Amino acid sequence: MLTISIENVNVEITSKCNLRCAFCYACCPMKEGIDVPFKKLNKFFSNFSKDGRRLMLTGGEIFMRGDVLKIIENAHDLGLLVDIFTNGTLLTDKHISFVSEKVDKVFITHDGSEKIHNALRGKDMFKKTQISLKKLISANCNVNVQCTIVPQSFQFEDEIIQNFLDLSPQSVKFSHISKVGMGKTCRNLWLSDEEVLSQIDIVRRLSKESNYRIMSVPDFVNNKKYSISESQIFPKIMPWIMCNGDLVPYRDDSSRTKISSISTYPKLSVNVDELVEKLHSIMRRNIRHKEYFDYMEVVSDAIGELAK
Ligand code: SF4
Asked: 245 Cβ partners below 8 Å, 6+ apart?
């Protein structure tokens, strides 16, 4: 029996972002994006609030919104655990002190090497993110790093490992670029199958020297692993609220694989059990002859077929 988990919700409060990463899965526009109206958010928070429930505020870049602190405060004061996802380039000292009091977990993108980070996210962005990250850690925030690995990253492996050892966040999660959103077009940033597996070597090296949580390659699985885990990962669906206010199903398997704001994602108003079963059968068909595959891409393709 499939059930909808409603203990965790992701809310895309804005589709605006100050960066223009070449591989952005969400194809975020800088200015012409959408903010979910403040009133609409608050109404949802009040309906959803119950102690122990968790909310992830994401975008775009959430600090593009002038009212972001008010949004966090309202959710926190309603008893929700509030997590945030940010690229870390717009945080002021005021934001950091506020976040240390009201936010449960901070997820921040940091690619480990200055050269790689700036090449992927824009000139001088590494410094900005690095400063915010250090300040957040000094303010005792629970900081979780999301590091994107591209083929060029392997030349800077030592720097990446040293940086994360020096920073010592709560966790580091390594991932690679999936061919969805703008990631479809940047071939030079795609990892080969061998490189995806080499990412594990970085994890091994970092694990040996650190005592915090390290995760890797969440989207790249082999067929055997998929068939073992599919019965556990499909039953958990949680809602994702998009900037245009649409509520969409979001599959969650305890942070191992994720799919996010793909505009073709069918709305939750359709029968979710039926929808998940259909998704599942399309995916099974599409991976039948593959040994390894990128989970996010297979889900994205299946969603595209479903939405036709
Ligand atoms: S990947 Fe993240 S930081 Fe980069 S443009 Fe997209 S939303 Fe912004």
From this structure: 36, 40
Half-sphere exposure (Cβ direction) of 252: Cα atoms closer than 13 Å: 18
CATH fold for domain 3-220: TIM Barrel (3.20.20)
- Reference 62, options 93, 36, 32; nearest CA is 36
Query: Which strand (E) or helix (H) includes residue 198?
Result: helix 193-209
Tokens of 59: 């975008």
Query: What confidence score (pLDDT) does residue 264 get?
Result: 40
Pairing, β 247-251 against β 236-241: antiparallel
Closest atom of ligand 1 relative to the 17 alpha carbon: 8
Q: How far apart are CA 161 and CA 159, in angstroms?
A: 6
Q: Which is more confident, 39 or 156?
A: 156
Distance of alpha carbon 35 from the chain centroid:
19
Count the neighbouring beta carbons within 10 Å of the beta carbon of residue 6: 12
Query: Over the stretch 186-239, which tens digit does the pLDDT of each residue have?
Result: 889 998 878 877 887 888 888 888 877 777 655 667 777 777 666 555 444 445
- Distance (angstroms) between ligand 1 centre and the Cα of 95 equals 19
Q: How far apart are CA 106 and CA 229, in angstroms?
A: 28
Ligand 1 pocket test, candidate residues 61, 109, 116, most atoms within 8 A of CB: 61
Category of 208 on φ-ψ map: left (φ > 0), alpha (ψ -120 to 50) or beta: alpha
Amino acid at position 129, single letter: T
* Closest C-alpha to ligand 1, atom 1: 24
> What residue spans define the domains of the chain?
3-220
Instruction: Give the number of C-alpha atoms closer than 13 A to the C-alpha of residue 137, restricted to the C-beta side.
Output: 16
Are 266 and 247 contacting, i.e. CB atoms less than 8 angstroms apart?
no
